[in-house]
């Protein structure tokens, strides 16, 4: 029953609460009982429905059996040193079962993470941090519960046979905690993704920009062998690095020509605005400094604070390079033709030590092209607001024809322009 409702964690590791009865079986019958219970008792609903191939089912059961038998032998080594029913012997048996649980957890987790890593291509370190670490404490908490289950089962006069099933309540509660963990994490990721897409959706030229910056930055961080929690921080900061552009007016953000001094000053506020947006969220407080500093220059001439060199957070220095590369190799309102990979790399190297950290630029340059190359645009993925043709893409002759039509309409209707209803071609046209 404990195996019937597994919870799939974000990267593919499957967790359930069958750990408790398996460890209880170790206490009651040693490695033999544990192996039997682990093999037959861990059949889950996916196997019954045929959602797992036979070799996957065989591996899953074999991994649990190996872990259970190894845990059983470790328990017997400790149990053999105890005699009688004294309190000391009971404590030794208890800690022996905790040791068995640790052996079980270690072997089962290593095999599960290795299998998921081989199947998905995700690094084992990532799977461990983002899947297993989040439920590790709950798993460890099942070991004392398993000991208590075994003790209740041994109660005389058959009491244990009907008392043990009462543990379904704490086991179901633990399973619910796994499910809530997955739901909360998915909601967190989806909310960040939606916020990033909301920023990018303001202009078709920046659609997908935040996702690509995040992806490139994460790959750079992994090449640099940063700790997984730093990689994750860079991932979220990459998705949200431009969230402050929500506070920039369209007539500035979407302007085709160069910005004047006042417009440039306003545009340069977006890192600060972005940091202020995410800082109140406790789960994103560590990302705020990276968002604020992603336009700082290595020589100190960037914005908003003019910090330099190693005073700039390492994650922000990574984001700066990924952001610049992605922007250069994409179309923009002010530059319809993107730069080639070679040209963009040349610019990064040219400004290495000036705008960019010279020790990090080679990391991006040496990334595989399949990571750096922009995937082809798919019109069906455009947000609804961007389905209409962009007025900025009109050829000059179309603009001239429109001017002639406007002049003709004015001649036909001499009333003041403000009295005639019209629809602005761009959102920026409607901003005073």
Element layout with pairings:
Layout lengths: L6 E2 L5 E2 L3 H23 L3 H4 L5 H26 L7 H34 L3 H30 L5 H5 L4 H33 L8 H15 L4 H13 L9 H4 L7 H7 L2 H9 L9 H5 L21 H15 L12 H10 L10 H5 L3 H4 L23 H17 L20
Antiparallel strand pairs: 1-2
Helix pairs in contact: 1-3, 1-5, 3-4, 4-5, 5-7, 8-9, 8-14, 9-14, 14-15
Task: Characterise the protein shown here.
This protein starts with 6 loop residues before the first strand and ends in a 20-residue tail after the last helix. It folds into two domains: 7-185, no CATH class; 201-380, Hypothetical protein af1432 (Orthogonal Bundle), CATH 1.10.3210.10. It has helices spanning 19-41, 45-48, 54-79, 87-120, 124-153, 159-163, 168-200, 209-223, 228-240, 250-253, 261-267, 270-278, 288-292, 314-328, 341-350, 361-365, 369-372, 396-412, and strands at 7-8, 14-15. A hairpin with a 5-residue loop joins β1 (7-8) and β2 (14-15). It has 432 residues and is an all-alpha fold. α5 (124-153) packs antiparallel against α7. The chain has 18 helices and two strands. The model is unreliable at 398-403 and 405-432 (pLDDT under 50).
Brief write-up:
This protein has 432 residues and is mainly α.
Question: In this structure, how is the largest beta sheet organized?
Answer: 2 strands, antiparallel
The value of Rg in angstroms is 30 Å
Helix content: 55-70%
Give the overall silhouette.
elongated
Q: What is the topology, as strand order, of the major beta sheet? A: 1-2
Which structural class do the helices and strands define? mainly alpha
- Mean pLDDT across all amino acids: 79
Under CATH, the homologous superfamily of the largest domain reads: Hypothetical protein af1432
Overall strand count: 2
Query: What CATH architecture label of the largest domain applies?
Result: Orthogonal Bundle
């Amino acid at each position: 029953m404990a195996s019937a409702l597994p919870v799939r964690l974000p990267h593919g590791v499957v967790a359930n609460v069958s750990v408790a009865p398996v460890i209880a079986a170790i206490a009651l019958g040693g490695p033999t009982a544990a192996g039997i219970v682990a093999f037959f008792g861990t059949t889950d609903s996916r196997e019954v429905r045929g959602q797992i191939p036979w070799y996957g089912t065989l591996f899953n059961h074999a991994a649990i059996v190996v872990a259970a038998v190894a845990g059983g032998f470790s328990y017997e080594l400790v149990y053999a040193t105890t005699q009688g029913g004294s309190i000391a012997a009971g404590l030794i048996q208890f800690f022996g079962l905790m040791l068995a649980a640790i052996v079980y957890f270690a072997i089962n987790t290593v095999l599960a993470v290795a299998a998921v890593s081989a199947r998905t291509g995700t690094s084992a370190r990532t799977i461990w941090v983002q899947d297993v670490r989040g439920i590790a404490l709950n798993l460890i908490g099942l070991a004392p519960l398993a000991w208590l289950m075994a003790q209740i089962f041994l109660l005389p006069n058959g009491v244990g046979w009907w008392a043990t099933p009462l543990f379904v309540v704490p086991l179901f509660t633990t399973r619910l905690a796994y499910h809530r963990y997955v739901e909360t994490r998915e909601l967190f990721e989806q909310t960040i993704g939606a916020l990033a897409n909301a920023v990018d959706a303001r202009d078709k030229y920046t659609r997908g920009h935040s996702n690509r910056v995040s992806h490139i930055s994460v790959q750079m961080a992994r090449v640099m062998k940063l700790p997984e929690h730093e990689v994750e921080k860079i991932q979220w900061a990459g998705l949200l690095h431009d969230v402050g552009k929500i506070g920039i007016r369209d007539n500035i953000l979407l302007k085709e020509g160069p910005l004047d001094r006042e417009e440039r000053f306003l545009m340069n506020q977006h890192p600060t605005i972005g940091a202020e947006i995410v800082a109140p969220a406790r789960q994103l407080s560590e990302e705020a400094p990276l968002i604020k500093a992603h336009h700082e220059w290595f020589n100190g001439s960037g914005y908003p604070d003019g910090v330099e060199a190693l005073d700039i957070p390492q994650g922000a220095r990574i984001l700066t390079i990924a952001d610049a590369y992605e922007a250069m190799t994409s179309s923009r309102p002010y530059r319809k033709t993107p730069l080639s990979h070679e040209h963009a790399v040349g610019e990064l190297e040219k400004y290495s030590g000036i705008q960019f950290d010279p020790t990090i630029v080679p990391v991006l340059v040496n990334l595989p092209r399949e990571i750096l190359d922009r995937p082809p645009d798919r019109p069906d993925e455009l947000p609804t607001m961007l389905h209409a043709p962009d007025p900025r893409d009109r050829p000059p002759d179309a603009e001239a024809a429109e001017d002639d039509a406007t002049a003709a309409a004015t001649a036909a209707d001499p009333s003041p322009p403000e009295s005639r209803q019209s629809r602005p071609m761009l959102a920026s046209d409607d901003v005073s």
